[in-house]
Design goal:
The complex is a heterodimer. By secondary structure, chain A is an alpha+beta fold. Chain A is 36% helix and 26% strand. Chain A contains three helices and five strands; from the N terminus they run ββββαααβ. Chain A is globular and about 35 Å long. In chain B, α3 links the parallel β3 and β4. Chain B is built from 15 helices and ten strands. Chain B is an alpha/beta fold. In chain B, 50% of the residues are buried. Classes of the chains: A alpha+beta, B alpha/beta.
Chain lengths: 92, 398
């Protein structure tokens, strides 16, 4: 799996829907006859994947929102996994 | 030791069987043998109330099924309300009743996905098994679904008569542009149980089918995901039916009966509440029917002391009833069950090059009435076939 470049613009993939579920206190990813319950960090990353922001911008936004530096590697690892699972696609 | 069941989570998966009416007559249908006796279907307002109450509890995946849900004239209205409430909406259909106008109206209403059933890759067998001329129609509907940009699951129930066509079935689903293909081996309840000796494949057929599936998976890469469900008669441990009784799933039958699985109403000594008389919340948390097999407290041996009891929760109660006449015993599919010989006998018969026997019974109202009349007890063979098993998991990442 090649690394996701910093200027890629990830989006929740066609056929998937991300939404917040109060009953589960979690973001979930919905697709035909299935659901993935996301943990907090996965949910926070995915909800910023709007096809407009670049990976760099998403990292910066997360670092500011959570008052932490050095999230780039975690985000890149998540992106690779999410692309492999088909949850995320890259827009140019 | 009666361990109390923990408080259940929400009914994440809600299946509305809007009607038992269906233009097809499939020989393996999971609808009750007695479906023709079903009383009045819920009306639009009642279905919408169910949607609202279940959503408040946290239901989020919605199946609209039947019978053929497209025979309901209020399908678009129900879909629109479900969308407004925030459901992910799956339409489970034979395709009969879909056309350009209907599919566009459903899209506007907020339908998320369409699962289209096929009986086979050949016209002859598709039309024979469903007792209809629907093969070309289904091809057209597949194209229509993709032209309206829906994600599509193609579902084909596998059995002795079509499993050798698997290569062509997968090729067809790929050609239609399906994102997912469900190859659900027949499970033997209701009409499929009646017809079991016609339908149960041989071990050699299943092994060949698994090889074909794996070869296609390697070739397809990520283009289409294939789910291959092995027939549980060939397993030594039972399936974790419905992800655990009353843990995730609620089905509502056309007459409003609420069920923890599609066919649980066959089980003797249990009553299931009706949404006309109780709220979804009361039904899910308080009803005897939904609580009866939650957790492990109901178990007897060999389940009670089994170290896998929380892995499969004893398997399927309908199968236990059907094959061992006791819904609270271990699913006879398990080789620890004292009744496992019933399963191995059926499997042994299936290895013969030809099986008997009685003619195939097609699912129609006439057969339903006759069987109901003849069999008031014995023929309560009732459970799901293709059931929309919830595929739910929690991912922990990051």
């Amino acid at each position: 799996m090649s690394a996701v470049t910093d200027d890629a613009r990830p989006a929740v993939a066609h056929g998937f829907r991300l939404q917040w579920e109060p009953a589960q206190s979690a973001h979930v990813l919905l697709y035909p006859e299935g659901m993935v319950k996301l943990n907090t960090s996965a949910g926070e990353i995915l909800r910023r994947c709007d096809g407009a922001r670049t990976v760099t911008e998403i990292v910066a936004d997360l670092e500011q929102a959570f008052g932490r530096a050095g999230l780039a590697a975690d985000v890149a690892a998540f992106m690779s996994m999410a692309i492999e699972k088909g949850w995320v696609e890259l827009r140019s | 030791m009666n361990a109390p069941a923990a408080t259940p989570g929400p009914p994440l998966w809600l299946l509305l069987e809007l009607t038992y009416r269906c233009p097809l007559h499939c020989v393996y249908c999971y609808n009750p043998i007695e479906f023709a006796q079903t009383e009045q279907e819920l009306d639009t307002a009642e279905w919408i109330r169910v949607l609202r109450e279940a959503r408040e509890l946290g239901a989020v995946q919605l199946g609209l099924s039947g019978g053929e849900p497209l025979v309901r004239e209020d399908l678009v209205e129900i879909t629109a309300e479900a969308h407004r409430l925030g459901y992910y909406i799956n339409l489970i259909t034979s395709g009969v009743g879909l056309d350009e106008t209907k599919i566009r109206d459903l899209k506007i209403a907020g339908l998320d996905h369409i699962q289209l059933s096929f009986q086979d890759s050949t016209r002859e067998l598709n039309d024979f098994l469903s007792h209809t001329k629907t093969f070309e129609l289904k091809q057209r509907i597949g194209a229509l679904i993709k032209s309206h940009d829906y994600p599509m699951v193609v579902n084909c129930v596998l059995h002795r008569l079509n499993i050798d066509h698997l290569d062509a079935i997968i090729e067809m689903a790929d050609r239609l542009g399906a994102e997912y293909l469900e190859l659900a081996n027949t499970q033997y309840y209701s009409w499929a149980h009646l017809n079991r000796d016609h339908l149960l494949p041989s071990r050699a057929q299943i092994e060949a089918a698994e090889q074909t599936t794996n070869a296609w998976r390697a070739r397809l890469g990520g283009r289409m995901r294939i789910f291959f469900v092995v027939p549980d008669y060939y397993e030594t441990r039972p399936k974790k039916c419905m992800n655990g009784w009353g843990s995730t799933f609620m089905a509502i039958a056309p007459d409003g009966t609420a069920l923890p699985c599609h066919t649980a109403r066959m089980l003797p000594g249990l009553s299931f509440p009706n949404v006309r008389a109780a709220s979804v919340r009361e039904i899910w948390f308080e009803s005897e029917g939904f609580n009866r097999f939650r957790g492990t407290g109901w178990m007897k041996e060999p389940c009670a002391s089994c170290d896998e009891r929380e892995k499969d929760f004893g398997g399927c109660h309908c199968q236990a009833y059907l094959l061992a006449n006791d819904p609270a015993t271990a699913d006879p599919v398990c080789d620890k069950s004292p009744h496992h010989a019933v399963v191995t006998a059926a499997v042994t018969r299936a290895q013969a090059s030809s099986t008997n026997v009685k003619p195939l019974v097609f699912r129609d109202a006439k057969a339903s009435r006759e069987l109901s009349r003849n069999a008031a007890g014995e023929m309560n063979a009732d459970k799901k076939q293709k059931i929309l098993e919830p595929r739910m998991h929690t991912d922990e990442h990051g």
